[in-house]
Predict the structure.
Amino acid sequence: MTSDLITVRGLKVSFASDAGIARVLDGVDLTIRRGEIMGLVGESGCGKTTLARAILGILPANAARIEAGQIRFEEHDILDLDEASLATQLRGRQIAYIPQDPFTAFNPVFTIGTQIDDLMRFKSPLLREGRLSARERRRADRLRVLEMLRLVQLPDPEGVLRKYPHEVSGGQRQRLMIAMALLPQPKLVIADEPTTALDVTVQAQILTVLKRLARDRGVAVLFTTHDLGTAYEICDRITVMYAGQEVEEAPVADFFARPSHPYTRKLLDSLPSSENGIRGITGEIPRLVDPPPGCRFHPRCERATEECRTTRPPTHAVAVAHDVRCHHPLQDSA
Amino acid sequence: MKTFVLVVNRLAWFVPTLLGLLAIVFFISHVIPADPAAFVAGENATPETVAAIRARLGLDQPLYVQFWRYILSILDGDMGRSIYTGRPVVEDLLSRLPATLELTLVTVLVSIAVGVPLGVVAALRRNSWLDHGLRVVTIAGLAIASFWFAILLQLLFSMRLGWTPLGGRVEGWGPEQITGFYLIDALILQDHEILLDALQHMILPVVTLAVPATATIVRFTRAGMLNALQSNYVLYETAMGYPRRLVIWKYVLRNALIGTVTQIGLIFGILLAGAVVVEAVFDWPGLGTFAVNSILSSDYNAVMGFTVIVGTMFIVVNLVVDILHGMIDPREVR
């Protein structure tokens, strides 16, 4: 058993759009180890969500096309699995999902209890053991559900189960989503900007709960966010994506101490601070229908040379476990 | 509790709604240049006789006095006598109500049983030949003139093939009157012969009425399904590996039916009032036939009685729809 839980190699996904074929993922590499929290950081439209959905196998079949690549999850080749085995074996069991918007992710016309019961009916870890009768399992699951709701710090777990989604607050709904993601005891949780839709004060609490529970259970998390501050709080490693490619990957301490890609550097500089106020990044995200040749960041990069304009930079290591996709990475931390 | 408040609220509105309805129909039917007194008196009556009859019927009073008297008598459960049949209007209506109700209920049930599954399948196989085919059929079904379609059915199935009776509710006498619904009465009496016969008589009128009703249900169910299928909760349920069948037939369908239920309420009302033509073609002894005769003979009391009955039913159906709505969609708060 290796320490790598999931490896994405050379993943290319394109979407049909009115303007033409958009290459939303253009050869992405990503590795998540067991029990680690990986932050996937980037601006809107950089391909974070597409990557997350590709791993879950829930890209829209009519619009998205997987052109190339491999997604390996333990012994499974996710891209080779058919829909039925993905749904029954992986999704909800091995790989769980925490959505971006807890307001619309619950089905509005069923109680929370019904939705959790149905989840447990098909995804309970007790199903794998198969020793218990259906009735014993239901009773055991009921207790596990209540226990989990306490762990995510929901007040009145029994009461919440009887409520409809619109009757609980956004923060509580996201706590429920975390609980539902962890109940099947998955190996990987994909959290797609789980705090973006919440108030800032609630965000921190939710992150703390997610981090603690994932740590306690040794669950790996792929945590997408556009907020570096959030990533700093929760992640072990960070991967930065830009225009459909990962451009830098490093352990969190190294990442903030020695950002090597010019884009990463600008992202960090764009964080509001007392000295700088708010600084944006000049230029725009490239159109994915006809992206710039060479390095995709070169139109916004003052370090860009002729090489950057013509040749795609390869990924190379600048330190231990610190990879950068750049011809001229920044050398020091200054 | 919420349902109770809703019912009380609706009942409170019942009286003003009905009063408004009565006023409108009363004044419209009385400004029509027709003279029921002359109709009662016959062709060769002298002007004096006509005047005497007019006075006896109260038709020489100002309109508002007539209206006031009418309201008072309705409160006594008296809708006056039919000028045409000479019997109390209430009796006439009550004897014919079950025939129309039975036809309407069976039509609605058939339309739901056929329309909802077809709508679901059309949505799941969007833009397939089946979906396109259903679209053509449903639009045709909505556009078709029911009297023409009814006659066509009679020509083919009754005249040419001899499979179904031409008209009426049963051959000869109906079953002993218990509820007035022949199907139910025959079931209670265990009279399978009459049951079968009543069913046979029902086929053509039900088909005629059910075609546009089913078409409406198919279209609304399809639209509701498509809408719900694109929602975030379906994405979430899929990502968490809820079985597809459960997602479609439980989670999506319930949301999709919210719009369909409203339509079913409307269809019910339209059928109640609009069975007029179909009842006439199939010689169905219901309210429709009664209404036609009453209108043709300027039978004020009968027309008014018909209006009150249909209006009441419409209000009741709306109430039922609202209660159903509240059961399907817990967000509904009034």
In short: Chain A touches chain B through 31 residues (CB under 8 Å). Chain A has 13 helices and twelve strands.
